[in-house]
Every structure is written in C-alpha cells, then in structure tokens.
C-alpha cells in the first residue's frame, strides 16, 4: 500500500472583468510539497472564451499561462520566481491577483499519485 501524501490545488480562472467577479475555469495547478511535485494543466477553448468575453486576447492569455508553466517547472525563462522551491512557486502563482488570470482559494487533499489527482481535478472542474 502506498503512503498518501498531502497535496494542495487551486483552480485557474479567466476573469475578463475583475469588477464583475465572473469567471470561467480554464485550468488546475497542484502542489505535493513532500514529493516536490508542482504542475498545472490548462485548456484554452477559443470558442468558449470568445463567447464568454468577445474582447479576450487569447495570445496574451497563452503567454501569461506559458510563463506560469515555466515557473512550475523551475525553468529560468520563467523569471526570478522560478528559482524558488516548488512550494514558494505555488504560493506565488496562487496569490490573489487583480488580473484576467486568477486562482481560486487553495484546497488540500490526500493522494497516492499527484499526476492522477491533477488529471481528475482537471476533468472535474475544467472539462
């Protein structure tokens, strides 16, 4: 039997007009601190996003999220934040922001496979 590990996750949201508080779930970010796992999964459905917000700049969103992916991987191209340990990178990404891409509150859980949990949460909250 595998040991269960604590994980934390947040839903990544597109918030086209921050003042209205409306959002569309577009991804999930997950940290399992004990194993050093930090990854995210995103889906930018162009048709759905354009219906939700006709003025949405999908290229800008993709660039923003690509930088987050680099930070998750600890890639120097993600900037100075990429030098931090996985838990601090997760905290930086999930910190409250007033931008078009935001994260939900952070939620905890237990798992034996962070990869599987990330896929399950993505299917449940994004697809």
Number of domains: 1
Helical content class: 25-40%
- Rg, Å, rounded: 15 Å
Helices, by number, come to 4
Termini separation (Å)? Answer: 31 Å
Structural class: alpha+beta
Question: Uncertain regions: pLDDT < 50 for 5+ in a row?
Answer: none
Q: SSE string, helix = H, strand = E?
A: EEEHHHEEH
Question: How would you state the average pLDDT, rounded?
Answer: 93
Number of strands: 5
Layout of strands and helices, then pairs:
Blueprint: E1 5-14, E2 24-32, E3 37-42, H1 46-52, H2 58-73, H3 86-94, E4 101-103, E5 107-111, H4 114-125
Antiparallel strand pairs: 1-2, 1-4, 1-5, 2-3
Short description:
With 127 residues, this protein is α+β, with helices and mostly antiparallel strands. Helix content is 35%, strand content 26%.
Can you put this structure into words, describing what you see?
With 127 residues, the chain is of the alpha+beta class. The protein has one domain (5-125). It has four helices and five strands. Strands 1, 2, 3, 4 and 5 form a five-stranded antiparallel β-sheet that branches. A hairpin with a 4-residue loop joins strand 2 (24-32) and strand 3 (37-42). The longest helix is centred in the middle third of the chain and has 16 residues, at 58-73. The protein is globular, with a radius of gyration of 15 Å.
Please give a handful of descriptors for the protein shown.
single chain; 127 residues; alpha+beta; 4 helices; 35% helix; 26% strand; globular
